[in-house]
């Protein structure tokens, strides 16, 4: 089995590092990071990751705008995206649903992971959201 490649798009470097360490250590996945929505779009085209973890609240280009760009691009529209965000109130979930993102298990696996997250559980949450096994 080939190693999964995950792109983490978050403007906070310590979040990038925590996610990278957790996913590489626990799941054995390759993790690429980007510090902005614009950089993340470029990195997704270059590296064609198996999934993207995307922060919602970022300066310049927020995560929802980056999501729309990724979905509009034929080269990246098939890449699964999971929002990594502290904004998970009902109004936020409604906005995500309008953009095709859901965290309702009845409809599909979660596509939103809440911050703060438990670092040692993150790989399992990502795997569950995407229907992946955690076997290295």
List keywords for this structure.
single chain; 5-stranded parallel β-sheet; alpha/beta; Rossmann fold; 136 residues
Describe it:
There is one protein chain. The protein has 136 residues and is α/β, with parallel strands linked by helices. The chain has a single domain, classed as Response regulator (Rossmann fold). Helices cover 40% and strands 17% of the residues. A five-stranded parallel beta sheet has the order 2-1-3-4-5, with helices on both faces. Helix 2 (37-47) packs parallel to helix 3. Mean pLDDT is 84; it is low at 102-110.
Cα gyration radius (Å): 14 Å
- Helix residue percentage: 25-40%
| Structural shape | globular
In the CATH hierarchy, the third-tier topology is known as: Rossmann fold
How many individual helices? 5
CATH class identity:
Alpha Beta
Number of domains: 1
What fraction strand?
Answer: 15-25%
Residue windows where pLDDT falls under 50 for at least 5 positions: 102-110
The total count of strands amounts to: 5
N to C succession of SSEs: EHEHEHEHEH
Q: Quaternary state, please?
A: single chain
In CATH, the architecture is 3-Layer(aba) Sandwich
Query: What is the residue-mean pLDDT, rounded to a whole number?
Result: 84
Biggest β-sheet: strands ordered side by side in the sheet: 2-1-3-4-5
The fourth-level CATH homologous superfamily is Response regulator
Structural class given helices, strands, pairing? alpha/beta
Largest sheet: 5 strands, parallel
Measured between the Cα atoms of the first and last residue, the distance is 8 Å
